Structure formats: structure tokens, C-alpha cells
Hints:
Elements: E1 16-17, H1 21-28, H2 54-61, H3 99-106, H4 112-123, E2 127-132, E3 144-150, E4 153-154, E5 158-160, H5 163-182, E6 207-208, H6 219-223, H7 226-231, H8 245-255, E7 260-263, E8 273-279, E9 282-289, H9 292-314, H10 322-337, H11 342-347, E10 351-358, E11 365-371, H12 393-413, E12 424-426, E13 433-435, E14 439-445, H13 452-455, E15 464-467, E16 474-477, H14 484-492, E17 508-510, E18 516-518, H15 529-533, H16 543-553, H17 557-560, E19 569-574, H18 580-589, E20 609-612, E21 631-636, E22 643-646, E23 651-652, H19 670-683, H20 693-698, H21 701-716
Amino acid sequence: MSRQAPLRDPISAPACVGPRKQQALANAGIGRGRGKPPGQKVPGAVPAARSIPPNEMLNSLQQPAAAAAQPQRYIPGLTAPPAAPLPASNDDLLPKVPKSLASEYKAQKKNPVSCAMEYGAITRSKVSFEECSADIAGMYSTRFGNQCTVNGRKFPKGVGKTKKEAKTDAAGKAMDILIEETRHLPEEDPHAAPPQEKNLVGGGAYYTPRSEMTSVESGMEFYGGHEEREGQSRIDTNDISGKHPLMMFNEYCSKKHLRLGYVTPDKVTDRGFYCQVIINDKPITDAYASSKKEAKRSAGEEALKILLLKDRLMLGEHNHSHFDKMSQIARQTFEDKVAAYPQCRTGYHTLAAFILKTGESDPGKVVAIGTGQGGITGRQLKENGRSLIDTSAMVVARRALIKYLHQQIHLQYSNRGHKTCSIFDELPDSHLLVLKEEISLHFYMSTAPAGDAAAYIPTEYAPTLFLFPSYDCFISSQNLMISDREADIMYEGLHYPDLSNPSAGSLRVNGTGGVTLVVNNLEKQEQTYEGLQSGEPLRVMCNSDKLLKWNLVGVQGALLSRFILPIYISSISLGNKYDLGHLTRAFCCRIDDSVNELLPSGYHLRHPYIGRVSVYEPQKEAMAGQAAGPMSVNWSLADDRIEIVACNEGRSIAASPFRTGPEGSSRLCKAGFLNRFHTLANDCKFSLPVQTYAELKAAASDYQRAKLILYDCMESSGKGRWLTKPVEIMSFTK
Length: 734
């Protein structure tokens, strides 16, 4: 596969698109298209009806009747046989079914409907299903019928006792015919854009990086070792795919000649049964659960994960993909910062981090970290801005990033000679700063964010086995291995959003117990301060929707947009729950690229690289007897110590290594950001009247305009209304 030319600008966004424009616009964000260049033929378009002039109609009526004579009927032995029909050209055939997809279909690893939809996505063909009658041989039938259509070609009807069975039968018949008819065709490159689309940039269901899209590294060099990935061996899973995780752990230790032991006291603690894993006489990790068996399983899985991560670090940097490196540096930095606080090391549920890279050879440095899950209730909302509302890992990490950006802007504008230490450059003829050209921002998260991304990704995956080239052992776990086809797409930076479900892409809010709620299904979509204080549930937008927002308006927020141009994420690395189709839709492809024509200068819709680590990272579970994510940890490169915040209070705990005062207001709260904003305003010699926090944010006109365009796109496309919190909670001035 050809590789990209070296990429230079870390802020440009990849976004070349393919066909299915109308369907993508209907599903992905706004009801307007970019149009086509004059004279260009749109693939799959139906020719428009033509008005016939009167003189042309008269001439057609005066043609000799013989021209319409029927051909002579063939009678064997009496008349000459008709000429043999010409073989159909390849242009008349549908695209070839990829071998890997055909194999998965024949092996029944995927249901026929999924295979048909995947065929459409890979070959950029329009696949649709339509319910129809199931009449058989002219007789009335009580069964249901369905028919599959691919690029306008209708395939034989499917029938079944239910609608689902009929659709499955129709998809199966279509796949059988497609595989048979196209088996003689050469294998096509699923990532190559059609000739008529080589120079187009717009919205749709197919995305690839622009030629001018730039980054600190390029092509496979950016993501590391494609050759190494292809060289990784696989083993037959027929005999051992059903092994218990502890059996896998025991076999790993046996192959590595490690002395393995467990400590499982009989006494039950207030957190449940306890188990500690000992390797070579040294404790590795521990776990609590409702039973001894479950505690031992959890501890064993966590220990196996730790050992695999250590092995990966020993492989050498050249064997790691970009996504592996982001995971490693994020986890190692977190471990270093919380080494003296074991309750933080074992008590978190999700880890998120932002990493800055400077140049191709720079391994990157973590500038912001966040852990946690959940947040406060509506009754706990105050008007002084001193409590964190949302303490989920992604939101906390982003607020820590903003604190770091405050420090960098202060360095740039201060009179202490630190300009060379800042990550910003000054724009000529402007008061705004811009991220230096060689610097790029990357995001890591241990699992898919809640909302549209995670809602459609299955929690459980069939066990898959994988053999690493660095050592002779195998492990069994969920979603461990990515198929070659999906890995190639991931490494090339292609986006194939899954738009097959009409309800997918809807805005969601956080509910209780980790459940997310579709905004369109809520009875009440207005939030008032009085209602929240009286006990109404506080509705906070899900992390998937917030990440979508950051890919349009940047991660810097409204206040900092008065000092700097938008900062966009270059890549997103996940450790768990990875599905490219759902993630690309949730993170960016719910909105069409034509929105760029409406955005203020400096803003655009960003399509970041999205990938996952090579080794599946088991998602941490909440401790027994405790609410998920009871504590949240935050740290940035501008801080000396971590801060520990109680998720259900939004304030730092008494034992936190860093604490602002006896009240425990978090250093990431709105009031803290307002104070730092005034410091930056003094550095820049801004003359500001006394304004509330809400008024200062509203004064960032370009940012607010871009944000409202996003809200309008989602609401006008039927994906829901963006719920906002009452303005009273932002009415403070200090």
C-alpha cells in the first residue's frame, strides 16, 4: 500500500470524501451540500428528465414503421440462431467482495446484514433493504418479505417468519450472488478514492487525509511499525480460545519462569474479599470483589496487564505504534505521579491524558492527566463557581490542559524572558497567539468515552488469541486483535463512519448509574437553577458529544480563545472499546465538512487520527461496595503535586496533596479559571470592565459563533438539542 508524503502542519485536518453524499448529509449533520464542479458526473446519479422540443417530437413520429419491427423469432432448424450476447464488461458488475469479508461471511463469523452493510462501506456502494410482500408462486403467504438493493440492482427476495429473518435471508442471498459473480475480479484497494473524486474535499461516508494535511510524522512512520504488526504471528484458537483468564495468566508465568502466588485472607473486609498477586516474592497488584473467586480473577487479570505493559516497554521504541506510545507515556506518567498515593493507583476507573509532541523524534510529554467518573447533583450547584460539576476523566484532563495553557500564555506575555520556553508563537498584526508549527496535541483515553461512541460498541467480544514476537506466550481477552483490514484503515487515517443506524449520532446526556439518555427522548430539555435546587436531575452532555465539540471549536475553551487561536487534537488513542465506524461518527463525522464554509476564520471541523493500542487494556471495574469513580485525580505540567477531588462533592478531599484552602475548592473550578484569566488580561494590558464569568465567555464572539453553528447543525439534522446549564452558576465575578 502506498504511503503518505511527509506531513508538516500539525493542525491541518484530514478530510477527503467519497460518494453517498446525500445519505451522509442526511445522517451526519446538516441539510446542505457542497455541490459538484461544473460538468462533473456524480456517481450513481439518476439522469434528469429532458424536455423534448416539438420539432424533434414530430421527426420521431415520422420515422418508418419498419424501424420498430420486431426481430424474427428463432426456430431451430428453420431460422438462423441469434448472435451470442457479448460478455458483460467489468463496468457493469458490482465491486468485488473483499476476500477477508467473504471468508468471514462463509465462516458465519458475521451475520449477513452486517456483511452487506460492510461491503457497502468498503466498496462505497449504496446498500439498502426494503420490506416487500412474500407472495410465493402467486399464492398468499403469511411470511414477511425483504429485498436487498445494491447500487440500484435488486437481488432476490428474502422471506422469513419475522421481519428480521426476512432481512437476514435477503442479505444472505445478495452476498451469495455478489461473492459468486465477482470472484473472478481482481482485488481492489478499498482505500483508493474513485478517479472522479481525487481532488474533492467534502462530507460523506468516506474520509482520508488531505495531501496538505500535516503532522509531526507521516504515514506509517507516524504510527510506527506496520511491518512489525504484519510480522506478528497468530495461533489457532480452536483448542484454547475458551480458556479462563487465570489459566492464561498461569501459562504466561510458566513460560516466563516466574514464581506466582496469591494471598487470599478468609476474613471479609468492608470492601469485600481481598486477593493479592505475588510474583517472585514481590507484590504486583491486588483487588477486592464480592467473592474470593472473583477477587482472584480480577487481581490476576490486572497483574497480567501490568506484566504485558512491562514487556512492551522492553521491545524497543521502533516496535511500538504511535497509539502504543501514547498509552505507555500516559500510564507511566500517571504511575509516577500517584506512586506515593496507592488509593489513587487502584481506585480509578478511567484514565485520560493530553500529550504534546515536538517534531518527529520527540516521544512526547504528558501535559495533563485526569481520572474519575460521575459528578455532583443539581442540589449541589452553587453560584460561586467553586465546585467541579463533571469529574469524568476526559473532562478533568481537559480542564488540567487548560490550566497548563494558562501558564504557557503567561510565559509568552510576561516580561521575564520566557518566550522561548512557551509553546506559542505570536501572529503578526494580531494579538492572538498560535501553537508553534512543530507542536501537535494528542489525546489518550483508556476506554471509549460515554455517549454516542460507547453506546453502540459491544461490551463483550469473543475471545481472541494473539502471539507476540517478543516472547512465546499467548493471552485470551476481549477485543484483543484488530482485523488487518481495520488496522490498515486505522494506520492510514481513514474515517469510515457507521451511519447504518438512523438513531446513531444523537446527542446524549449522562444519567444515573453510568447510563446515558438520548436528548430527544427527554420530556424536559430546559434546566433552571430553581428546578435543579428543588431536586430535578442535572443533565450534563456526554463525553462523546464534548469531544465532537472540541473537534469543531478547539480544546482551549471560550476564555482562552480571546488570547489564542483554536487548538485541535491530532490523534486519539484508546485502550479499550474500539470500533472505528462508531468512533469516527461520534467524534467528528456526525457533521458534514461543508460546515467549514460557515465557521469563523481559524476554525474548522477536525478529523483526527483514531486508533487503539496493540494489546487490549482491560477496563478497570469499580471497587466492591463503592460508587464508580469515588475520587478524581488531576495534574498538569504546571503543577508540582496531584489534586484529589471527591467526585460526589466536586471539591478536594482533606488528604489531597494539593489543596487551595479549608473549603477545598478545586484548582480546576470556574472561579480559578476566572482568576487566571484576569492575570492574563493584565499581562496583555487588556482593559476589562467588571463582568461576570458568563459575560466574559460570551465576549469571545468567534468561539460563540462556531459553537452555535455546531448546536444548529445537530438540532436541524434531528440529532437533538444541546442542553446547557443555568446561567446563574456562572454569574460570579471573582
